[in-house]
């Protein structure tokens, strides 16, 4: 099936090219019979037709490009307060001066008599 379709397309392309060639030959013979201004006008027509055919062929061979809109999330900046270290009353590096501890008097020895 695919091969027959390809052969049909090639055959159609060949017949279309033959038709175009015959038309161009007819135009060439008719242009030879007329004056210079008419020749220039005919060439301008052929050029504009050629340009539109080339543009259409480019459009057909150009790959289709799909565009897709994508949402990009925005980052939100949140300012937070940073806890500042509190001032210590006494720096850790300095030895602290402590009052001497008074010794506790020993317990009295109470012997009980039983």
Give the class from helix and strand content and strand pairing: mainly alpha
Helix and strand element order: HH
Number of helices: 2
Radius of gyration: 52 Å
Strand content: under 5%
Note the gap between the termini: 127 Å
Described by its quaternary structure, the protein is single chain
pLDDT averaged residue by residue = 76
Helix content: 40-55%
Low-confidence stretches: 1-8
Shape: rod-shaped
Overall number of strands: 0
The major beta sheet can be summarized as: none
Describe what you observe in this structure.
The chain has 114 residues and is mainly alpha-helical. It has a domain of 60 residues. Helices cover 50% and strands 0% of the residues. The protein is built from two helices and no strands. 0% of the residues are buried. The N terminus is likely disordered.
Q: Topology, please?
A:
Layout: H1 2-32, H2 36-61
Gist of the model:
Helices cover 50% and strands 0% of the residues. The chain is mainly alpha-helical and 114 residues long.
Index terms:
about 110 residues; mainly alpha; 2 helices; disordered N terminus
